[in-house]
Design a protein that fits this description.
Blueprint (H helix, E strand, L loop, with lengths): L6 E2 L1 H10 L12 E4 L11 H6 L3 E2 L1 H10 L3 E4 L17 H10 L2 E3 L5 H5 L6 E3 L16 E3 L1
Parallel strand pairs: 1-3, 2-4, 4-5
Antiparallel strand pairs: 6-7
Helix pairs in contact: 3-4
Length: about 150
């Protein structure tokens, strides 16, 4: 498990892809980048720690997502991005950069346990949000097809 405030860097991302035998050239426009930090294991077990901060991506990875023309980021955390941000003058800059400026969606509180146990690192990701008029977020049931 990563620690609250620990930022996932592009170097971390590339090292992870190498361990999973994924080439960076395999990442195509419209793909998603999903991050397992271990933080989700705290949910309903240690909510004070879970809610106090989280590990996640920062602006460096957000720029990588933009360069790759991805459509989605997601994680087993409540914001996907690092909280608190290492730059104390910033609050939720990844949300602003990806969602507000570029329309790249963000899925939070995902569970990857079965995929990781089965070593499934590439899959079709399906999510159908509830049609809530005027909403900026939605519940739904994410599905991974391997």
């Amino acid at each position: 498990m990563m620690d609250a405030g620990q930022e996932i860097t592009v170097a971390d991302l590339r090292a992870c892809m190498q361990r999973q035998n994924i080439q960076e050239s395999d990442v195509k426009p419209g793909d998603a980048a999903l991050f397992h930090t271990g933080w989700g294991s705290l949910w309903m077990k240690n909510n004070d720690r879970y809610n106090a901060g989280e590990p996640g991506i920062g602006l460096e990875v957000a720029r990588w997502v933009l360069d790759k023309d991805l459509c989605l980021t997601g994680a087993d955390t409540w914001a996907v991005e690092v909280v608190p941000n290492p730059d104390k003058s910033l609050a939720f800059p990844v949300h602003g950069e990806l969602q507000t400026k570029h329309g790249i969606l963000n899925h939070e509180n995902l569970v990857f346990d079965d995929l990781i146990a089965d070593r499934k690192y590439q899959f079709v990701f399906i999510f159908t949000p509830a049609p809530i008029k005027g909403a900026t977020g939605s519940n739904g049931c994410p599905i991974a097809i391997t």
